[in-house]
């Protein structure tokens, strides 16, 4: 009879019945549970849009709140200029471990069944998908040319845009970048902030659900301005702060993506950002109506003035 040591046997059983570890959110420790909310002014923070420091506290989510995924208290503040922003912004280690952000699981958990899904299918059959409509409007501003999609993910936007433009994707996730390259698209594995793409090399730059994630929208728009050729157009799509859904849901509004969205915009604040970064905000196309929950602005790079 083979001789087993107790320890070896336990290890054998453990190997046989190996459990896939569940990814648990980080446990708030006693210190962080009592932690005081950090105040932007005390942290030396100035408004990214106007440079001011006159902020009011809009919503606060303590540690353990059902909307707060972080191990620190988080809050959204509103500047006197109207810009809403997250402070403090949790560090990655203060948020649940997600590993590689791009996964099939993420894709599959989106939009499951129900009336909303059925309505979406009907609507798409009539007016096209959201991306198709976005591109149709963009073609009114720039009918053809070189197109860059920031954060191209699995390449859904590139696939639609390729019907009209010469497309490139920018995607920091190696998994998503590889997946999209396999589909035959050109993908540069960089972030917008650190990209080495040459200046003036695009006619359209798309930021679909990107601007609400960046550390500084001002810096992101300046970089976008550099990437565009004269007369080129930036497309910005983002949740609409103070839209109908934002007003109805208050602190529960999913546009906050609590702990993740760093800035929230109205048509006015996003328009001001575009103007100050050197863009002319187009009146047509433009989606900033009273009943819109998604804000979409198109901005054309101004031709440098001859003094
Ligand atoms: Zn401000």
TrEMBL record:
InterPro entries: SAM-dependent_MTases_sf (IPR029063). SUPFAM superfamilies: S-adenosyl-L-methionine-dependent methyltransferases. It comes from the Bacteria. CDD domains: AdoMet_MTases. It holds the Pfam family Methyltransf_23. This is Uncharacterized protein.
